[in-house]
């Protein structure tokens, strides 16, 4: 039985916040344009080895009579020509949406292909992370050495048009569809930087690989391995990182799974097998009618991890395969968990592919931890709860927006929280931009040799956001807590 857990950007559970926040090393974004990463979490299972496509003739059933009648009526009597395949796809999507399940979905050929590309780690596009800020599409950052990077695209550039077509009213998914394309082809982006005039950039698309594992040595022979998602090849990357850290003298290990939305369960299984001996329980699955089915480790544990003190850092963005991995290690006594309660994704979807390359996935089962706990909508509670400071979860301010005296909204509160963290705001933190907020902004601008206006806008906003990011990287209480926790382990 081959089970794969994927992430999906199309349906966002209510528990996942829909705001852009400041993360440890980058902004948490809803979609990564032209490479596509995702914020929402979906579990996806391919069962029974190689999947066979469905090619059965549908039987005539009375409950579908109305559906046929509506289709025939529209096909014959609509006032202009219609795309019949689009009608069928829409009908199927409507049927699935009737489940009221954010994890069940019907994908057309194009949607399924884009989704598969997302989880491979290999892309063809420009390599630029994007986010949606209100009605605007913002370039969060170009990936280093990507086509976008080489073309001079900068963080916080506003995307105005693609091939001279305005992006007004487009979603991030719409933008992705227009930016992506085969390597070697070109796309023209119209961008706006700060308060300047729009300008055009012609970018030649290329092949891009996005690694999912990063590693580095900290002090006291402690290794830090960060896993951003479980894509194809993540287990191989992780194995290489373990070997590299051992060669550099690793005696303790911290695994950072914060904001890891999940991915292929098979990759998580292989990674867990680096720690858990063959035959020990990794997790269970259970349908509504059956008894739990056990999944055991089928790999010999890596000698590198034997008696290796290990701490896993989780947060509310750690979901799905991240939770499977973390629970497997903790329940088997191989790791402790620090951070905050995880997302809580404990159900699995089965996929049915069709000959036209479309795909139907629907929730069929739940998964249980080795001690048979169902974490759905509950999450995994850490052994040591460590919260991030308030500014780490603040809204990222758009440099094009002007924040000035008299404004009242949640963005002003985020501004005041950030100014307080940087040592400039001493008044009450609320949603009102008052004279004290203005004075704090003026002092901030003066200290950083910016034009002193008392308004947060443009370069002031960019510098403000950058300083908060740097502060959080240098003063990461969850990582600090994990270090203390691992130093106390014997």
UniProtKB/TrEMBL annotation:
It is a single-pass membrane protein. Keywords: Hydrolase, Membrane, Protease, Serine protease, Transmembrane, Transmembrane helix. It is found in: Cell membrane. InterPro entries: ClpP/crotonase-like_dom_sf, CtpA/B_N, PDZ, PDZ_6, PDZ_sf, Peptidase_S41A, Peptidoglycan-bd-like, PGBD-like_sf. GO terms for molecular function: endopeptidase activity; serine-type peptidase activity. Residues 120-194 form the PDZ domain. The keyword Oxidoreductase does not apply. GO terms for biological process: proteolysis; signal transduction. GO terms for cellular component: outer membrane-bounded periplasmic space; plasma membrane. PROSITE patterns: PDZ. The chain crosses the membrane at residues 24-47. The keyword Iron does not apply. SMART domains: PDZ, TSPc. Belongs to the peptidase S41A family. PANTHER family: CARBOXY-TERMINAL PROCESSING PROTEASE CTPA, TAIL-SPECIFIC PROTEASE. This is Probable CtpA-like serine protease. It comes from Macrococcus carouselicus.
């Amino acid at each position: 039985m081959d089970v794969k857990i994927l992430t999906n950007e199309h349906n966002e559970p209510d528990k996942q916040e829909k705001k852009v926040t400041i993360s440890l090393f980058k902004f948490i974004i809803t979609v990564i344009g032209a490479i596509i990463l995702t914020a929402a979490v979906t579990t996806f299972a391919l069962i029974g080895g190689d999947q066979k496509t469905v090619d059965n003739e549908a039987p005539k059933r009375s409950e579908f009579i109305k559906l046929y009648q509506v289709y025939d009526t529209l096909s014959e009597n609509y006032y202009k020509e219609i795309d019949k395949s689009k009608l069928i796809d829409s009908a199927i999507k409507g049927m699935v949406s009737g489940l009221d399940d954010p994890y069940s979905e019907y994908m057309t050929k194009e949607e399924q292909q884009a989704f598969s590309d997302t989880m491979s780690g290999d892309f063809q596009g420009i390599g630029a992370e994007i986010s949606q800020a209100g009605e605007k599409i913002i370039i969060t950052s170009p990936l280093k050495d990507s086509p976008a990077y080489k073309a001079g695209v900068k963080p916080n550039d506003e995307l105005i048009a693609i091939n001279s077509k305005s992006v007004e009213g487009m979603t991030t998914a719409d933008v992705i569809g227009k930016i992506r394309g085969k390597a070697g082809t070109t796309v023209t982006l119209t961008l706006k930087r700060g308060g300047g005039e729009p300008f055009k950039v012609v970018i030649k698309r290329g092949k891009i690989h996005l690694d999912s594992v990063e590693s580095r040595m900290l002090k006291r022979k402690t290794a830090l391995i960060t896993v951003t998602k479980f894509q194809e090849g993540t287990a191989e990357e992780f194995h290489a990182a373990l070997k590299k850290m051992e060669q550099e003298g690793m005696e303790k290990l911290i695994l950072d799974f914060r904001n890891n939305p999940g991915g292929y369960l098979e990759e998580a299984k292989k990674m867990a097998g680096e720690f858990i001996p063959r035959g020990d329980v990794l997790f269970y699955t259970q349908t509504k009618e059956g008894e739990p089915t056990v999944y055991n480790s089928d790999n010999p544990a890596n000698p590198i991890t034997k008696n290796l003190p290990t701490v896993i850092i989780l947060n509310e963005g750690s979901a799905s395969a991240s939770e499977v991995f973390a629970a497997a290690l903790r329940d088997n006594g191989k790791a402790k968990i620090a951070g905050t309660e995880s997302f809580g994704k404990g159900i699995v979807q089965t996929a049915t592919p069709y000959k036209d390359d479309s795909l139907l996935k629907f929730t069929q089962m739940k998964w249980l931890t080795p001690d048979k706990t169902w974490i759905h909508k509950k999450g995994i509670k850490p052994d040591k709860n460590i919260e991030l400071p308030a500014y780490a979860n603040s809204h990222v301010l758009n440099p094009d927006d002007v924040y000035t005296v008299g404004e009242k909204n949640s963005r002003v509160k985020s501004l005041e929280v950030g100014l307080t963290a940087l040592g400039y705001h001493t008044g009450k933190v609320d949603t009102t931009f008052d004279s004290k907020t203005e004075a704090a902004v003026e002092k901030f601008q003066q200290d950083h040799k910016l034009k002193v206006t008392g308004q947060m806008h443009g370069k002031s906003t960019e510098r403000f956001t950058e300083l908060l990011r740097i502060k959080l990287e240098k003063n990461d209480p969850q990582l600090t807590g994990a270090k203390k926790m691992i130093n106390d382990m014997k």
